[in-house]
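[step 3/7] fold_predict: job queued, chain A
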Amino acid sequence: MNNILLITLLSLISNPCWSERFGIPEAGIVFDAPDGFTKLSAEEIAFKYPSSRATAFVVGNKKRTTTIAYDLKPEKISPEHLSEIKTYFESVFERIIPGIEWKKREIIDLRNKKWVYFEMTSRAIDTDIYNIMLITSLKNQMLVLNFNSTTKEFPKIEASLRKSLQSIEFTEE
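[step 4/7] structure written:
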């Protein structure tokens, strides 16, 4: 075995990077999901997100207790209006999300792009949920990513979710 191949194999063993890349290639956005995440089927998405405005794309762990939902929505938004969008979503979430507890509500810079950034916990029917939501303008539409997990599981997966969040890339614009 040559030295280059041996070094490559050793680096893969000592530093595995088996996460899979997901995204919306036609929209020009990709990200790395945590290890073991797979796409949810259309039936799983319909069950988890029963709204007619449900997200189009979702990946999750095997138990589906932690997921990343992402979509490019047709709402026309521009980067200049992120403050208004933040205020709007805060107001809506306060009204419709049971037991919401805000952790963070701000506008951040990620990958040279401004994002509305929300971190919150809420109550679902059968468990409490930890959410990290990002909203930005992409091609004059609204790009939304929602990283969520049960509050019980969140401490175990938090580092992987935050690493996934930092892996967001724009392949075009």
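[step 5/7] annotate
The beta strands are 21-24, 29-32, 38-39, 57-60, 66-73, 101-110, 113-123, 128-138, 141-150, 169-170.
The longest strand covers residues 113-123.
exit 0
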